[in-house]
Amino acid sequence: MSARETAGDRPRPGGLAPAAVALAATLAVVGWLLLGAPGNLYVGYAGGPIAMAAAVVACWQVGSTAPLPRAVRSFWRQLRYAGVFLLISAVISLLRANNNTGLSPYVGLPMLAGVVILMVAMLRLPFGERTALGWLRALLDGATVAVASTLIFWYVVLDLAPPGTSLVARIAAAVVGVSGVLLLVVIGKAAAAPSAAVHPASLRVLAVAPLVDMAGTILLIAGEQRGRLTLSVLALPLVALSMAVSAHLQRREPGAPAQPVIGAAQRSIFNLLPFIAVTATAALVVSVSAQEMSTRQRTVIIGAVLIAGFVVARQLLSLHENNIALRGIRRQQAELERLALSDNLTGLLNRTGFGMALAERIDERLPATALLIDIDDFKMINDTLGPAAGDQLLYHLGQRLREHCRPGEPAARLGGDEYAVLLPTDDPVVAEAATARLLAGLGEPFRIGDQQLLLHASAGIAVAADGESADEVQRNADIAMYAAKESGKASWVRFEPRMRQDMTLHARLAGELHDAIVQGQLRLVYQPVFDLETGALHGAEALVRWRHPTRGFVSPGDFIPVAERSGLIVPLGSWVLREACEQLARWRAAFGPGAIEAINVNVAVRQLRDGGFVDEVAAVLSETGLTSRNLIIEVTESSVVDGWQVRETLQALHEMGVRLALDDFGTGQSSLSLLRAFPVDVLKLDKSFVDGIAEGADRGRLAVAAAVAQLAEYLQLKAVAEGIENAEQLERLREMGYRYGQGFFMAKPLPAEECGKLMSAPPVQVGVSSA
Ligand code: C2E
Ligand code: MG
Ligand code: MG
């Protein structure tokens, strides 16, 4: 469905009434002629003024219609003036109905004025080539046609005029006739302009006017009595009818077409006009020379005409060759345009194509919604299947999307695993229904080779609001899509303006975080991990803190996600790793065997994906004088399912002897299978399971907490309970078999110095007394 097919803000069709009046008047004249012109001649001539008055009204209506470009409106205003002169001519014809022999100057002169104004109006339309060369070419074409048609009029048409015809009438007739031919050339030029402003159908209908003008002049001056009568009563109504219909068409289709309004075939006919003129003149010269010259003179003339003929033929040949070359270039250009706008893997639109389609709807003030779809965890699938199968999957995804799109909902692949659909609506409910339909379509299993794959996707929906550009709408959809991903994937989120504020805040935070790393605003605190049986200090987890110069303390819960998204987590994480290891080295130097053996450092998935992480760890350990036994790396469950690169990094760290802890254990999706696939040493039971434990209200959580302890025992892993806040929790966890724990109840995250004090002090009796 093209944009124009959608009902919307197209102006109401109008201007039909004047066209109907002009048609009625013309038909009445035709009827009158068919009946053998009964009664008074005034009856026949009355059609002209009526039809022409209607045409003037029609042009006036278009000239004052608001949604048209200025150039087009002014064109129709000039046509209205032309119509007024033709109307004068029609009224004079009516008044002189009874002594109408040949063309009278009173009728001819206003008619000529009308034709000239028409021609000027056409010439003022935007031509393709307003260069000096373009004008010169147009002038030469015009001059050729004018000279040829003048000669033909003078020799042929005026020769046939009745002997009594006055010189003024002859000249007027010749000028009006020649103007008709020239007008045809000008209409052709206007219609062939690459950015034709006036509607194509309108221009085509207007071409009736010069044709009638030429035929009319010829018949008026040289025709039979009956033919002359026919045209003298019918010519002006026909011209008026063409103007009124043309105006009506323009009002119905106010949009200017992007393509030239006439096709290549018609264009070449217009290009041929000068050659036709030359040929006609040559024929005239030969025939005149046959009547009025001696054989010698005639031979020279015929030779000259032949040479002119050869030159013309030669020119036609090059014109033909040019046309063929031009067609080839156009075809290539169209193909290039198509390629530039489509995605070569799926054949859907690409990012540029989608942006253009969206911009087009927005420019035309049609309702539009951008829907952005991103496949969840595609990277993992791609890593597992390999790139070839990944491409195949992307292709099938594209086809599936296309199948589930309705007509008028173009689909695009923006790159990677990101797809988009342009929805022709501004109703959020409709847009969400379409999104649900499309996501459900993508949720059906895919068959790649002998594998059956089930995918999920997240989507962002952004309805184009008033005054928003295509770029903004796309960005909004992107923001909403991120929100969908963050809210847990396999869902969609509709954009709301506050999301942009969040996004801006994040962007600003990312900028400031960058400075914070450079300017040393970051600190590490250490939360002790205790042996729950002995109450002894067992280890410590390094946690980053940001003391912002104006905002004050910013929680890692707020800036770690920002750092992850912006990639700043890589330098930040490097700093944390080095600082924590240096601190442990200092403690070990200061407290010897009293110091903790290992330090826990949180590592984000972006760091693991970075190829150099293993080398970095090795370098830091050796530079701080530590061994791999002194470091425990904490990763979250969701980060380790991130593909082969992460898996390899973790394996290499394990082989090096660095221990791995699964953080926030129990909150992820595939906890159990992970334990088999990864070299895990420590399970850290998430705080949420510890929270509900004492009240015993949540049996499910209680069961998970107990199961994790048993699992750890069975697999010989160390189980650590996180976020212990009271004695009761501690007691229950110990009963369940948790050997280690951390939490505010025992100690909050502490500055290095305070944490160090614990290493020289006797063990804190963390509730052990009650045991
Ligand atoms: P996490 O690794 O699970 O760290 C434990 C979080 O729980 C810490 O919050 C800690 O202060 C808090 N916590 C400990 N005991 C209790 C308790 O009894 N009650 C309550 N309410 N909270 C307790 P924090 O320091 O705000 O860190 C939050 C998260 O930020 C961490 O969760 C970790 O995922 C991330 N994070 C912190 N530092 C780093 C870092 O250096 N690198 C990376 N990649 N992530 C970090
Ligand atoms: Mg942690
Ligand atoms: Mg945790």
UniProtKB/TrEMBL annotation:
NCBIfam families: GGDEF. Keywords: Membrane, Transmembrane, Transmembrane helix. GO terms for molecular function: cyclic-guanylate-specific phosphodiesterase activity. The keyword Secreted does not apply. Gene3D superfamilies: 3.30.70.270, EAL domain. It comes from the Bacteria. Residues 506-763 form the EAL domain. InterPro entries: Cyclic-di-GMP_PDE-like, EAL_dom, EAL_sf, GGDEF_dom, Nucleotide_cyclase, Rev_trsase/Diguanyl_cyclase. The chain crosses the membrane at residues 16-35, 41-60, 81-97, 103-123, 135-156, 168-191, 203-223, 229-249, 269-288, 300-317. This is Diguanylate cyclase (GGDEF)-like protein. Pfam families: EAL, GGDEF. Signal peptide: none annotated. Residues 366-497 form the GGDEF domain. The keyword Acyltransferase does not apply.
